[in-house]
Amino acid sequence: MTLYSERIVFPEGDWQEAPCRLKIDQLVDPNGYPLKLPLPSPRILAFRVFRITTKMETGEEIRCYHLEQLNLLDLEEYV
User: Fold this and answer.
1) How far is CA 4 from CA 18, 54, 57, 60, 64, in A?
2) 18 and which of 6, 14, 61, 70 could share a cystine (Cβ 3.0–4.6 Å)?
3) Domain spans in the chain, listed from the N-terminal domain onward
Protein backbone atom coordinates (compact mmCIF):
# COMPACT_ATOMS: atom_id res chain seq x y z
CA MET A 1 0.00 0.00 0.00
CA THR A 2 1.35 3.40 -0.98
CA LEU A 3 0.39 6.65 0.74
CA TYR A 4 0.33 9.83 -1.33
CA SER A 5 0.99 13.24 0.17
CA GLU A 6 1.55 16.74 -1.16
CA ARG A 7 3.65 19.51 0.38
CA ILE A 8 4.40 23.12 -0.33
CA VAL A 9 8.07 23.99 0.18
CA PHE A 10 8.84 27.61 1.04
CA PRO A 11 12.01 29.42 -0.14
CA GLU A 12 13.62 29.02 3.31
CA GLY A 13 13.13 25.25 3.19
CA ASP A 14 10.18 25.03 5.59
CA TRP A 15 7.25 22.95 4.38
CA GLN A 16 3.62 22.21 5.18
CA GLU A 17 0.92 19.98 3.75
CA ALA A 18 -0.57 21.33 0.54
CA PRO A 19 -4.34 21.93 0.67
CA CYS A 20 -4.81 21.01 -3.01
CA ARG A 21 -2.99 20.11 -6.20
CA LEU A 22 -1.09 22.99 -7.76
CA LYS A 23 0.39 23.77 -11.18
CA ILE A 24 3.61 25.38 -12.37
CA ASP A 25 3.39 29.23 -12.37
CA GLN A 26 0.27 29.20 -10.18
CA LEU A 27 0.07 31.99 -7.59
CA VAL A 28 -0.73 30.93 -4.04
CA ASP A 29 -1.14 32.56 -0.64
CA PRO A 30 1.06 31.64 2.37
CA ASN A 31 -1.29 28.73 3.19
CA GLY A 32 -0.96 27.21 -0.29
CA TYR A 33 -4.40 28.18 -1.59
CA PRO A 34 -4.55 29.48 -5.18
CA LEU A 35 -5.08 33.22 -5.54
CA LYS A 36 -7.85 34.54 -7.76
CA LEU A 37 -6.77 36.88 -10.52
CA PRO A 38 -6.77 39.80 -10.89
CA LEU A 39 -5.26 40.49 -7.51
CA PRO A 40 -6.90 43.24 -5.42
CA SER A 41 -3.53 44.87 -4.74
CA PRO A 42 0.15 44.20 -5.46
CA ARG A 43 0.84 44.64 -1.74
CA ILE A 44 0.08 41.10 -0.64
CA LEU A 45 2.23 38.16 0.34
CA ALA A 46 2.16 35.78 -2.62
CA PHE A 47 4.21 32.88 -3.89
CA ARG A 48 4.58 31.25 -7.31
CA VAL A 49 5.02 27.52 -7.89
CA PHE A 50 8.26 27.26 -9.86
CA ARG A 51 9.04 23.54 -9.58
CA ILE A 52 7.24 20.31 -8.78
CA THR A 53 9.19 17.27 -7.61
CA THR A 54 8.16 13.80 -6.54
CA LYS A 55 10.13 11.65 -4.15
CA MET A 56 9.55 8.12 -3.01
CA GLU A 57 10.06 7.07 0.57
CA THR A 58 9.23 3.73 2.12
CA GLY A 59 5.53 3.27 1.40
CA GLU A 60 4.96 6.92 0.57
CA GLU A 61 5.05 9.09 -2.53
CA ILE A 62 5.52 12.78 -1.76
CA ARG A 63 4.80 15.51 -4.32
CA CYS A 64 6.52 18.79 -3.43
CA TYR A 65 5.49 22.17 -4.81
CA HIS A 66 8.49 24.50 -4.51
CA LEU A 67 7.54 28.15 -4.06
CA GLU A 68 9.29 31.44 -4.70
CA GLN A 69 8.15 34.67 -3.13
CA LEU A 70 7.06 37.40 -5.53
CA ASN A 71 8.01 41.02 -5.00
CA LEU A 72 5.96 44.16 -5.62
CA LEU A 73 7.13 44.57 -9.23
CA ASP A 74 6.25 40.97 -10.08
CA LEU A 75 2.79 41.27 -8.50
CA GLU A 76 1.88 44.50 -10.32
CA GLU A 77 1.38 42.57 -13.57
CA TYR A 78 -1.33 40.47 -11.89
CA VAL A 79 -3.41 43.45 -10.67
Assistant:
1) 12, 10, 10, 6, 11
2) 6
3) 3-76
- Hey, which bits of 1-79 come out as E strands? 3-9, 15-17, 27-28, 47-57, 60-69
Which of 7, 56, 59 lies closest to 32, judged by CA?
A: 7
Counting residues of the chain whose pLDDT is more than 70, the rounded percentage is: 100
74, containing H or E segment: helix 72-76
pLDDT in tens, 13-42: 999 999 999 999 999 999 999 999 999 999
Instruction: Give the separation between CA 46 and CA 58, rounded to whole angstroms.
Output: 33
